[in-house]
Amino acid sequence: MPVTLVKERFPSKVGEVTLGATAEQGGTRDSVVVVGGDNLLPFLHFEGKVVHRPVIAMEVTDIVPPWNEAIKAQFGDVLDNPAAWAKKCVDEFGADLIYVKLIGADPEGFNRSPEDCARVVKDVLAAVGVPLIVVGCETPEKDNEVMAAVAEATAGENLLIGLAEQDNYKSIAAAAMVHKHNVIARSPLDINICKQLNILINEMGLPLNKIVIDPMIGGLGFGIEYAYSIMERARLGALANDKMLSMPMICTVGYESNRAKEANESVEAFPDWGELADRGVLWETLTATALLQVGASILVMRNPAAVKLVQHNIADLVEVAEA
Amino acid sequence: MIIIGERINGMFKDIGEALRNKDPKPFQHWALKQEEGGAHYLDVNSGPAVPTDERPEAYKWMVNVIQEVSNLPLCLDSTNYDAIEAAIKLCKRPAMINSVPAERPKIERVFPMAVQYNAAVIGLTMDKKGIPKDADNRVAFAMELVAAADEFGMQMEDLFIDPLILPVNVAQEHAPEVLESLRQVKTLSNPAPRTVLGLSNVSQKSPDRHLINRTYLAMAMAVGLDAAIVDANDDDLVDVAATAQILLNKSIYADSYLKVFRTR
Prior knowledge:
The structure holds 2 protein chains of 2 kinds.
Chain A: E1 16-19, E2 33-36, E3 55-61, H1 69-72, H2 82-91, E4 97-101, H3 114-127, E5 132-135, H4 140-153, E6 160-164, H5 170-179, E7 182-186, H6 191-203, E8 211-214, H7 224-239, E9 249-251, H8 253-257, H9 276-292, E10 296-301, H10 304-322
Helix pairs in contact in A: 2-3, 3-4, 4-5, 9-10
Chain B: E1 2-5, H1 13-21, H2 25-37, E2 41-44, H3 55-67, E3 74-77, H4 81-88, E4 96-101, H5 104-116, E5 120-124, H6 135-151, E6 159-162, H7 174-185, E7 194-198, H8 209-222, E8 227-230, H9 235-247, H10 257-261
Parallel strand pairs in B: 1-2, 1-8, 2-3, 3-4, 4-5, 5-6, 6-7, 7-8
């Protein structure tokens, strides 16, 4: 007797968000990136459809970043030139998006002006044809000024800008509304705050399809299970028609995985751990691939060797779905 | 929790008169007002305001004037299935048919129509002899309706079993039997049928209607109630529905959950 597979059917799906704008749409991008849209648990292709494959955004900072040499060496001499760096990420490493992090704005560091920051973003826009994600230096007051300037200088480009957080979402949501960008809504590994923040931003008048959830994550070995369970609840919420949790998710994989000691210590310091060059790549790769399985739509990554592995993984997962 | 707004009913004087005079305003007023209050569906019932043979036309007219202002799906409430069939063709969103008892000829009339129009059906746990006194007999009728849904190829989630609550001031012993029925109905199949109550009936002619309604709503939700035909503009009642849904872990908590519950 043939066995009928029990299939789960969900009443709703993850919302779609479009990033970037071509010339016809008022921007200057070669093409746009659409994320979300799935009506299934990740890659359970017999139950639904993978509408848009997950994408990789590569991190670019406005000043030379404090990363380990194993990563930096792969970029050669571009790390002091964000435009050239971004171009290399797209042309050589196949990045779908560039995630510009304006750490040079940090008042405790270089304290760059909002205008200087906006100029960096414009330079990167000129250098690449992919859509951009732009975040500040994680100092709320300064970021509000910086992101207002960036949003204005790039009006029409339909960027994804951040970070809107529960205690500081109004200026950035307003900047996105006025200049027609999308917003990253970040919550501290907390599904209830995640939902509430989406509600608050939406109440200001930003449509739900202009919001991307950053649930915050833990890297491999540092709470990734917790991030996984939060993301799973959000995904199930979206599929059960909870509109306030239906946005696609962005995960800062490169940042979180490379904070781990395991991604930075040399083999000399820990002979049992093996070569850092391999270990760091795997640490970031495994963080990324685990989160793909729970519905990450945008992976923000750092290490080009890890990007390559995850690109393969995504291709395999989507190919099976399309077969 | 699905809130079905009860106010568009010819038993109410303004709606009955408006139906006789073909005045769309009260229909449109209550459609919008109930949507604002938190209704997911609008019940539509002509009541005795028009003669039986004119009901198909009356239901068509009501559906049209309501849909001019509201996108909510409709719950077509009549025992006149010709009227329901005439109106259901005009519904822009899948409707709910309210209702069919566990009587074979009526099941055969209604279930194929529901499948054809992708509509949900409210199935009453009663037959010609009336409403059972206890849970066991209510559940037996529910089982007949569940079997019929399977037989006619209806999605089980599209069957809403109504175990029929009676006024507490005259039939107090029914209240716990209905709760027990709700609990058992959810075990009849997998996926289970959904459940509904004409909630306001529990408080007929009692002075503390709102309190009785919302207390019973919370109790019923805890044992498996999925939908209720209610006064959607009773804010305290809708707040109880939203809160019970959170406490049952059916939707994810956020500080603004009361507001979100009313967002359509």
